[in-house]
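Subject: Protein record for review, amino acid sequence with backbone structure tokens
Why sent: The fold of this protein is of interest and is recorded here as tokens.
Notation: Tokens come from a learned vocabulary of local backbone shapes, not from coordinates.
Attached in line: The record itself begins immediately under this heading.
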Amino acid sequence: MSLGARTGEPLAVTDEAVRALVDEQFPHLADQELGRRYTLEDHFAIRIGDDHGALFPRFAEDDELFERATDLIAPHLRRWTFPTSAPVGTGRPGHGYPFHWTLVDWVSASTAAFVPLHSHSARALGSAIRQVHVPAPAGAARNPRTSLGLESWGGEWERLLAFAALRGAPENRTLNVEGADALFRIGASAPLDAQWSWTHGRLEPRAIQSDRGTFCGILIWHNFGAGDPAADLGGAATVVPLDMRDELYGGYGDVTSATAWRAQAYQLLAALRYIEIDDPFMARMAWERLLELGLADEA
């Protein structure tokens, strides 16, 4: 499943439909007030009372991910020691909404997109990722973002690279297209020397939680599945500055040279996606990482 494989317009659902779905399928939450709605490119989330939320996919292609997420993650929750807003129940289609959706535990905090992590949090984030990355058995459900391999993202990389070059960087800088492309291709050619593990698949700034700069949880689990652990490490590297990466890897444990190169390529791919999304917080963080790598030059 490609990130670009989306058909039709993104679906919208009313608060009235959400209320009806929650009350019918999770009646113990019928007296809980619906809170703020958070809309992302592929799904939206709604808070329910103080302790729960609901995530709804916006495209048909993601229905199967939401249908499987609760059961797939359930065996892992018992061994994770970090806070997580993970699926704890699966909602069925109904009341005009055609897809499966998930009920999640709600962790009250900001995200790293709005409140960047402080240096002391890099090691804790790395430790949390290591807990996720246990070996996945043969035949395990695949993560659509981490299981395809970097070579499969070549076309999207070229498209995003061209877009970012035309968009331009802040402060009259330009993207070093040749340098970025060379660095990506080094990672794309690095061997897959790590065993496939369970992976999150979306460790972006909006999925990592921050309490005044302290790491305090991980959100957005519907892609969970088997894949290359370097993809998660690259996602995390978009969240922490380059001078915090040693602490990130220190919390994670051993990272081979080949895995580090693949993670670097995944970081570049993620940064260019954030630039295309054009969320000001995400784009700022993306350009910060590119500047640190020397990939944004004076015009």
Summary: The two ends are 38 Å apart (CA to CA).
